[in-house]
Design goal:
The chain has a 6-stranded mixed β-sheet with strand order 6-5-7-4-2-14, with helices on both faces. A 5-stranded mixed β-sheet has the order 1-13-10-12-11. It has 392 residues and is of the alpha+beta class. 43% of the residues lie in helices and 23% in strands. The structure holds adenosine-5'-diphosphate (ADP) and magnesium ion (MG).
């Protein structure tokens, strides 16, 4: 049920030993990139808006060594299959996890990095496909290890853009920049307040006695992929209609709540709800940063609750399992805030829980959720962690 978060150093050492067994030599580097959890600001990133994620301790590690035969090789502990391609050939998309590796190599090449042939071994304790961004942590750790082997380091902010290109263009997932960015620049004890348009960011300290608790609903409804694309298209349609009234706005992020109140009547009901979520959610991020800075926990809790309701009722990306997890969480003592996190239709909730209440929270929420749905939730306990780093 509760997954203990493994110490990073031990993971890297074990991975190095396994690397030796598979490839017959030790790795030259081991890089780690964290998963992430978004505290507030959902479906705002692709609307040029604000987000407030934190890197978590759950991470992907990639061990790598140079090789002499012009090949890029990779394996993962988490998935079957392997990468084995000639580095200077055109890579074909396989629609498997291996696309994340070849996609990152291709995006780095396109950026002008002179890559060298390398063997890679991947291990992760970020749950795959649960909304904690195993994909971005894989991309960032692969990118970091390839660059270290090539002795061509790049800043994490630059790498985030390259990895996003890899996911958008080579894997074919139309994600925003948030996941890769926070995996790159995350900092222990802090959330990252990021402006997804300018990519300016600030660290916002989280209280030391509060844990980030992620409850995995253990469901991923099959509509998720298609609905994500549909929401993006609806946001664009809403923007186009609003621009007829507000010609200066470039994205939904530029529409103030006052302007929206004046212009919402020009939108059909569905688009009005979608736009209302995005515009109000951007405001909630700004207000959450202020609440955190002034230690106003009651306000932060209200904002997280309002975010969940808006995602459920206006953006319509929640599901009964996430709603239950939030309902159970909010009834527990020591909970500052609870909401769904990530794209929706399953995956995880994020909960800010006082350290002394975490054990009780975990047991109560797990028992109630399993009683109602028959599924035992995985519950991950973390604090905000550092971003991308070379460990060995
Ligand atoms: P999320 O990023 O929320 O975990 P995604 O669907 O975006 O979910 O990414 C999950 C996919 O990323 C997996 O299905 C797999 O293809 C790939 N992936 C992530 N981590 C690993 C890993 N450690 N080993 C192999 N593939 C991985
Ligand atoms: Mg992902």
């Amino acid at each position: 049920m509760a997954n203990a978060v493994t110490a990073g150093g031990a993971q890297a050492e074990q991975l190095a030993a396994q690397f030796r067994q598979i490839y017959g030599c030790g790795p030259a580097v081991v890089c780690r990139a964290p998963g992430r959890v978004n505290l507030i600001g959902e479906h705002t990133d692709y609307n040029g808006g604000f987000v407030l994620p934190a890197a978590i301790r759950l991470s992907t590690w990639v061990a790598a060594a140079p090789r002499q035969d012009g090949v890029l090789a990779a394996r993962s502990d988490e998935m079957p299959g392997a990468v084995h391609v000639r580095l200077h050939d055109r890579f074909e998309r396989s629609h498997l996890w291996t696309d994340y590796v070849t996609g990152v190599a291709q995006a780095l090449r396109q950026f002008g990095v002179p890559l060298g042939a390398a063997s890679l071994l991947v291990r992760s304790d970020v749950p795959l496909g649960a909304g904690l961004s195993s994909s971005a942590s894989l991309e960032m750790a692969v990118a970091c290890s390839l660059l270290e082997v090539a002795q061509h380091p790049l800043p994490p902010e630059t790498l985030a853009g390259i990895c996003r290109t890899a996911e958008n263009e080579y894997v074919g997932a139309s994600c925003g920049i948030m996941d890769q960015f926070v995996a790159g620049v995350g900092r222990e004890g802090c959330a990252v307040f990021l402006d997804c348009r300018s990519l300016r960011y600030e660290y916002v300290p989280l209280p030391a006695d509060v844990c980030l608790v992620m409850c995995n609903s253990m469901v991923k409804h099959s509509v998720a992929g298609g609905e994500y694309g549909r929401r993006r298209a609806q946001c664009e349609e809403a923007l186009a209609l609003l621009r007829a009234e507000l010609p200066d706005v470039e994205s939904l992020r530029d529409v103030t709540p006052e302007q929206f109140a004046r212009c919402e009547r020009f939108l059909p009901e569905l688009l009005r709800k979608r736009a209302r979520h995005v515009i109000a959610e951007n405001e909630r991020v700004l207000q959450s940063v202020a609440a955190l800075r002034s230690a106003d926990w009651a306000r932060l809790g209200e904002l997280m609750q309002a975010s969940h309701q808006s995602l459920r009722d206006d953006f319509e990306v929640s599901c009964p399992e996430l709603d239950l997890l939030v309902e159970y969480a909010r009834a527990q003592p020591g909970v500052l805030g609870a909401r769904m996190t990530g794209g929706g239709f399953g995956g995880c909730t994020v909960n800010l829980v006082r350290s002394e209440s975490v054990a009780r929270f975990r047991d109560a929420v797990a028992r109630q959720y399993e009683g109602a749905t028959g599924r035992a939730p995985a519950i991950y306990i973390s604090q905000a962690a550092d971003g991308l780093q070379r460990v060995i």
